[in-house]
Hints:
mainly alpha
Amino acid sequence: MAVARTLGGIGRVTLGTMASIGRAALFMIRAVAAIFTPPFYVREFWHALLTIGYFSLPVVGLTALFTGAALALQIYAGGSRFQAESVVPSIVAIGMVRELGPVLGGLMVAARVASSVAAEIGTMKVTEQIDALVTLSTDPMRYLTAPRVLAATLTVPVLVAVGDIIGIFGGYLVGTGKLGFNASTYLQNTVTYLEFWDVGSGLVKGAVFGFLIALTGCYYGMNSGRGAQGVGRATKSAVVAASVLILAANYVLTEVFFAA
């Protein structure tokens, strides 16, 4: 009997997990279809563009600035063990545009946007505003999800690009102000060893991360439980899921782009 109960418990967990994955996959398909099918709610799209993109600039910029500065210090300290201090400019640039810029920028946007979207849509569900949209013959997927997913997919790469520039600038400030690098030499080494695909891969990652962030926030908001506790759980789950998906997608994309 104990073995049967154990196997039954494993089976229930497995079936529940597969059902959750299936619901999320169907939601993603519906969201993508809603982006390309009319009607298009341009006003909602511009509002999402502003709240997701523009208002996320300060947190992304500050995160990138201090990350680039700390990265320069760490690389200099490590490189000094092998008399390789000169690699600081190139490694800071490559590390920012390939990995740290997209990942940290994505995580900051996830913390800010996924929680906000999940709480907003979850509150609308609790207060029956989504039911009111359906009553008015307005598809919630087209009105709520599609503008946010499209806006995040377009704006997060821009945030990543801005974060890359600010992060490299942070490394430049530390390199020239504290570590004794010549300003022109630092900039020359940064440009010389930075290739187009280093930057391009980071921007592609940003687009994927933006899609996952908005999709996760909308999914948990739409499936929020009743009451304040339900909205709180949806918000927490959205941030956790978006963060894990970003890290997992980052590994997959890095394997695709840079595997030997």
